[in-house]
Amino acid sequence: xxxxxxSSLDDRDERYRIRSVDRAxxxxxxxxxxxxxxxxxxxxxxxxxxxxxxxxxxxxTLTARGFVAELGAGRGRxxxxxxxxxxxxxxxxxxxxxxxxxxxxxxxxxxxTAWTSRVGVLDEAFAVIIGRVDGPGIIRFQSNLARxxxxxxxxxxxxxxxHLPEERVREIVARTGLPARTATTIIDVEHLLRDLEGxxxxxxxxxxxxxxxxVCCVGASVLDHRGECVAAISVTGLKLTxxxxxxxxxxxxxxRYAAAISAExxxxxxxx
Length: 272
Hints:
Elements: H1 3-15, H2 19-33, E1 39-40, H3 41-48, H4 52-64, E2 68-71, E3 78-81, H5 83-94, H6 98-113, E4 116-123, E5 126-133, E6 148-149, H7 155-161, H8 166-176, H9 189-202, E7 205-208, E8 215-223, E9 229-238, H10 246-264
Antiparallel strand pairs: 1-3, 2-3, 4-5, 4-9, 5-6, 7-8, 8-9
Helix pairs in contact: 2-4, 3-4, 6-10
């Protein structure tokens, strides 16, 4: 597209913008930057460089719809964001498909590491894989989509468990047991709890031949706007093909891409 064509499109888009709607959105953005005490009408008018009567009309409209809330009365009246925005925010995030958001990161992880990338969620007491991008080569790791996996012996499962309270982890273990998949599988709940503490500290989880001999998996959790863990991603490969930097390097890769997905879900900090 030429510069002239782009300028023409910009001018056309500008014609369809409604000035009053723009100003109302400016009000919301300014209130979003304020603290819980809110702002007075005079402060809003000053920041918007608009008359108090105009701003008051916008505030009354936004208040009537629940997008702005009034605090106090008279000269001490202040304004802050209303709960209607929280409701809309929940609806927006509910419409975002975690798999759709994760797939570009999975592809990038596989391209960067040459290992298979996966994304999974916690379904009751099990980890369920909902997406996968296979690494290059003829080796395909068994990870059928929607198949339930024991969470205590996989990186995705540990990443998901690491955000649960101890009581919930114990409930899950009581249901699934801690069967030994290999000689290095964690089979004691106290050992598992210590391992999960290490996951929280390091920011990534490791399955070092705990589910399948010769196979290593490293993953990190994905958080939403509430800071809650809604999924986990991982890379899986043969231990003899560990890239330079080994498991810590794969951990940083997992953390980085998990943080990117979390940011798209509205998380305010990196996934851990």
